[in-house]
Amino acid sequence: MSDIIIFYDIPSVNGTGWSPNTWKTRLALNFKGVPYKTVWVEYPDIEALSKEIGAAPTGVKGDGSPSYTLPTIYDPKTKKVISDSQDIAEYLDATYPSGPTLFPKGTLALQIAFQEAFTTTALGSLFPPLLQESITILNEKSAVYFRQTREATYGKKLEEFSPYGAGRNEHWAKVRAGFSTVAGWIKKSGGVFVLGDSPSYADLSVAAFLVWVRSVRGADSADYKAIQAWDDGFWGTYLALLDKYTKPDA
Amino acid sequence: MSDIIIFYDIPSVNGTGWSPNTWKTRLALNFKGVPYKTVWVEYPDIEALSKEIGAAPTGVKGDGSPSYTLPTIYDPKTKKVISDSQDIAEYLDATYPSGPTLFPKGTLALQIAFQEAFTTTALGSLFPPLLQESITILNEKSAVYFRQTREATYGKKLEEFSPYGAGRNEHWAKVRAGFSTVAGWIKKSGGVFVLGDSPSYADLSVAAFLVWVRSVRGADSADYKAIQAWDDGFWGTYLALLDKYTKPDA
């Protein structure tokens, strides 16, 4: 029996994680330098796995029953199972206080609000033009499940969120405007990261979405290259500096 | 000639400021302990005043022409005129670095994002049920101007945002839910304020809206007493601790 953290993640066909939310946890684990081992879980298996290991539900389904999501970690050191990327990040700082800190003293409330602001400002527009392509890098089993559940929730096909054609340019223009606003906030720090010269969890939570876009569209795609060049290269530099935290477990 | 800052504010019939945005600046000036003198400006006079003193426009009107807003300050020490509450707050920290700091090192970007998150989470729902009553505490000249310009912008009467009736309870329930979310963020700091034990500009920008509600509805109103009791008294305690920064200039 190993005594390192088990990190339950959703696989993509690229051999890396698929979900931006699980990317947040991988980035946080690597940032903290806490050893861990990945266990890959396909979408339809998340609920059974969560119940088996005693993970708490993270939300409620449309029918009122509990819903289970990844990321989840199990830490043999404390015998705790934690779900929800934010709760995991707070747990890691509390349990492994040595080394780099995800939430430097006094910044936890602000970092939670930052993620909310990032979500409303940039992410609402990011999903439509990527949703239909994102499932092409899921394994078949997860792709079928993801399509069925999301289309039932939203009442429309994934392809209808941003149909191919001129409208997509408008969608990408909105994404760019949102990220430009966020870049404006970050630059106010006087450094390249939200808190200035050192990255914190707020940066990792933004980077998780850039990694997701790169993974969905491809590092050599026109879309991803465009993002790297937005705001005078801000996002290209940003992710280049944080990319070391995307590495798989050793 | 006095050499203290001139603070241009919009008067209410209560003898205090009317606008939540100018309240942010009064709270910030008092927090910093920087001496200032208030000059009251009615809404229809803001544009002429701004041009006269050389204040920069803070936005663009529907017809594309520049728009001018308060708060604005003139600092005879530096001979600078600054508009926009955020720009004023940053100016005050930069120009008067001794004493309390509105944006402690590393927190500026996060505090800007916090205000954005507070706006989308709580303020969108706060205006509808207060808009029609808010102009009853403006002087006649400003009330007429405010009604004309806002009704032209939104294409409906101020009374239509939250008509009296059962729908208002739903509006207030949304306000309460939004403030409860924000209280949840702040509590994460481990103290009573966003950064923990000491207030910062993020707190003053929230308090500005509580002061506005108190001013519009009255300190003894059922609405304001309800807000003070929300989240186990969180907001009552919060504003009680910050209320010393609402005092008028000496």
Structure, described:
2 copies of one chain form a homodimer. Chain A has 250 residues and is an alpha+beta fold. Chain A has 2 domains: 91 residues, 3-Layer(aba) Sandwich (Glutaredoxin); 139 residues, Glutathione S-transferase Yfyf (Class Pi), Chain A, domain 2 (Up-down Bundle). Helices cover 53% and strands 9% of the residues of chain A. Chain A is built from 9 helices and 6 strands. In chain A, the strands form 2 sheets. Chain A has a 4-stranded mixed β-sheet with strand order 2-1-5-6, covered by helices on one side. The first copy, chain A, has a two-stranded antiparallel sheet with strand order 3-4. The mean pLDDT of chain A is 95. At the A-B interface, helix 4 and helix 7 of A face helix 4 and helix 7 of B. Chains A, B: It holds the Pfam family GST_C_7.
What's a concise summary of this model?
Chain A has 250 residues and is α+β, with helices and mostly antiparallel strands.
Mean pLDDT of chain A: 95
How is the quaternary structure best described?
homodimer
Task: Give the largest interface pair and sizes.
Answer: A-B, 27 and 27 residues
Q: What is the makeup of the main sheet of chain A?
A: 4 strands, mixed
Cross-sheet strand order for the largest sheet of chain A: 2-1-5-6
Low-confidence stretches of chain A: none
The backbone outline of chain A, from C-alpha atoms, is globular
Q: Please count the helical segments of chain A.
A: 9
Provide the β-strand percentage band of chain A.
5-15%
Q: Compute the gyration radius of chain A: what is it? A: 18 Å
List how many beta strands of chain A DSSP finds. 6
* Fold-level CATH name of the largest domain in chain A: Glutathione S-transferase Yfyf (Class Pi), Chain A, domain 2
Specify the structural class of chain A: alpha+beta
Quickly count the domains of chain A. 2
What CATH first level of the largest domain in chain A would be assigned?
Mainly Alpha
Distance between the termini of chain A: 17 Å
CATH architecture of the largest domain in chain A: Up-down Bundle
